[in-house]
Amino acid sequence: MRVSADSGFYSIIDYTVDGPGTQRELVEAFAEIQERWVRFYPGYRSARFHVSLDGTRVYNIVHWDSEADYRHFEKTSDTEGRMAAIERALEGLSGKAEARMTGLPHYAVLREVGPGPQRSDA
């Protein structure tokens, strides 16, 4: 089986929340933001929302074809309007959510190991 590196560029947004209800609300609010403000830009692939089973974390992983596509989005999108929508979404939650990113949440895939046979050279 081939080992591959998925092409693309990612923005990974990380929030701490105060429970499963807030997780669901945050995912719904951020999914709507993707639908209204992001998904129609060239190079946008998807937004995936991962929630921790203990109800305390939400990861929003936004996948782009390339860093250039993401940079074009940053340069040409209504960042001020989108950020205002994010603030409104956070204020509208019944619980508490806190961003956990310490810098710009930009990532590229360096390596991925896919399925295949077990190696015997251990």
UniProtKB/TrEMBL annotation:
Residues of the ABM domain: 20-76
Alphabetized SUPFAM superfamilies for the sequence: Dimeric alpha+beta barrel
Transmembrane segments: none
Cross-referenced InterPro entries: ABM_dom, Dimeric_a/b-barrel
Pfam families, per the entry: ABM
The protein's name in its UniProt record: ABM domain-containing protein
Organism listed in the record: Actinomadura livida
